[in-house]
Amino acid sequence: MKNKLFIAGDSTAAQKSGEVKPETGWGEKFSYFLTSEIEVRNYAQNGRSTESFITEKRLDQIAKEIGPGDFLLIQFGHNDQKIDLPIGTIPYGDYQENLVRFIEVARAKNAYPLLLTSVTRRDNLPDGQLNPETLGDYPEAMIALGEKLAVPVIDVYRLTQDYYQRLGKEETKKLHLHLAAGQHPNYPAGVADNTHFNDFGAHQIARIIAAAIREAEHPLSEYVR
């Protein structure tokens, strides 16, 4: 029986339906970088925070399916920032408390939890530079929790910030859902989305995450091609 890799996260990782394509989540592309000996189960969903993922019992479903030797990738932050809504959380408060629940689900089943800080937004300041604070304190709160609980953390936020800075403002547009009016039937009026990825962008982000896991020599790395 194959080991399983579960992804718990938000729209940046989620599997997209046909009516929103070419929007693509990095989780859709992750299996490209893995061997056939592991099965990916992507539970990431648009608009979810740690809070709403738990209250909607999506974590409960993972708990029913995950087993010894499996992996749980945990990436939240974008929607946790929406503190004016019920789904919002405080970085060094209920955000960390909720992350503990994800970690406990994995550990209770002798699976491996792996924390991933959020991917950056394509959020450029007036001078054209990438906004280094676009995810607030959430990445650092996750890193601090990982250190406290001895849970490995892949700092995807820093990796993607560095990647975007190398590419520059115009080149990073090619990673995201940017379409002119009439260019795609799903977006007749066009779209300029600096959070969600197109097919190419999702592939690049998945590649960055897979490479970081391999470099970290995490147990999951034996499945990374």
Question: What would you say this structure looks like, in words?
Answer:
The chain is of the alpha/beta class and 225 residues long. It has one domain (3-223): 3-Layer(aba) Sandwich (Rossmann fold), CATH 3.40.50. Helix content is 36%, strand content 16%. The protein has helices at 26-29, 50-55, 58-65, 91-108, 138-149, 156-167, 169-172, 199-216; strands at residues 3-9, 38-42, 71-75, 112-116, 153-154, 176-179, 191-197. The strands form 2 sheets. It has a 5-stranded parallel β-sheet with strand order 2-1-3-4-5. Helix 1 (26-29) links the parallel strand 1 (3-9) and strand 2 (38-42). Helix 4 crosses helix 5 (138-149). The radius of gyration is 17 Å and the shape is globular. The two termini are 20 Å apart. 42% of the residues are buried. The model has no long low-confidence stretch (mean pLDDT 97).
Shape: globular
Portion in strands: 15-25%
Q: How many distinct folded domains?
A: 1
| The CATH H-level homologous superfamily | SGNH hydrolase
The helical percent reads 25-40%
* N- and C-termini, Cα separation: 20 Å
- Low-confidence blocks of residues: none
Count the DSSP helices: 8
Profile the largest sheet: 5 strands, parallel
Q: Using the 3D structure, state the CATH architecture.
A: 3-Layer(aba) Sandwich
Q: What is the assembly state of the chains in this entry? A: single chain
How many distinct beta strands?
7
CATH topology annotation? Rossmann fold
How much is the radius of gyration in Å?
17 Å
Summarize model confidence as the mean pLDDT: 97
Secondary-structure class: alpha/beta
Which CATH class?
A: Alpha Beta
